[in-house]
Amino acid sequence: MCDTCGCGEGTTTIQTPGEAREHAKMHAEGIEHSHNHDHEHDHDHNHSHGHSHDHGNSHTTTIDVETDVLRENNLLAERNRGIFETRKIFALNLVSSPGSGKTTLLEKTVEALRDDVSIAVIEGDQQSMQDADRIDKTGVDVVQVNTGKGCHLDAKMVNDAIQKLELPDESILMIENVGNLVCPSLFDLGEHHKVVIISVTEGQDKPVKYPTMFAESSVCVINKIDLLPYVDFDVEACKDYARQVNPDLTFFELSATTSEGMDAWLEWVKPAGND
Fold first, then answer.
1. N or C: which terminus of the chain carries fewer CB neighbours within 10 A?
2. What are the strands of the beta sheet with 13-15, ordered from one edge?
3. What is the pTM (predicted TM-score) of this model?
C-alpha cells in the first residue's frame, strides 16, 4: 500500500474552480498572498543521534503502521457514512485506471439528472483543475482535490471537501477517485458503492490482474462499447473474469460518448439517490 508505493502525505490541496481562478489571477497580477500547507517542511539538522537506525527487524513495524493508517481512515469513513445516512446523501466512489472515461461518464450523468435531483462532485487527481473545470461547466457544485504525490483519495480528504460543497439533503455525491486500480481499493471513503469502470480499450483480464478493486466494488461499468468493432475485447469474457473475484457485481455496458446504454445506468443512479 501507500507506505511502499511512494504515496506522499501532506501534499493535498482542496479548492473550487472559482478559488483556483482567483488564485491564478493573484499570481498573474503579482498580488502578495500566502499559501496554506498542511505539512511540515523538511529541516536540515547535523547533530548525531548516538544510535544506529538499523534495528535488525522492521517488518512488524511496517505492518503496524499500515494497519494504523487504515484504522484511522476507517474511523473517518464511518464519520462520512454517518453524514451521508443522516442527510440521505447517496455517495458513489468512481474508481478505474487512467483513461477509462470516468470524467465523461460523470459529465453525461450530471447533465441527465441535474434537473431532477441535486448533484455535487468531488474530483480527485494528483495535479490540475482540468476535470473540476469540466464539471463546473455543467452547472453543479464541484471541488477538486489534488493529492500531490498521493495515488488515491482518503476519508479525510472527502470530509474536508464536503465542508466546501454544502451538500443539500437528499442529494447525490459523485466522487471521481484518482486513476489507479490498486490503492483506491483499500480506502473506504464512507460511500454507498464503489463503481469500478473498465473501458473496452483495456485488457479484458484486468479483473483478475487487479482483483481487490473488483472484489471491493459492487458495480462494474464497461465503457466505450461504441469502440467494440475496432478492438479485441470480449465483453462476456471480461464479465466472467470479474465474477471470479466478485460473483455479486452488477454490470452496465455503455458508451458515455454516444450515450448508448446510458439509460440503464441513469435509472440505477437516480432511484438509488432518491431512496
1. C
2. 13-15, 141-146, 119-125, 172-176, 90-96, 193-199, 219-223, 250-253
3. 0.83
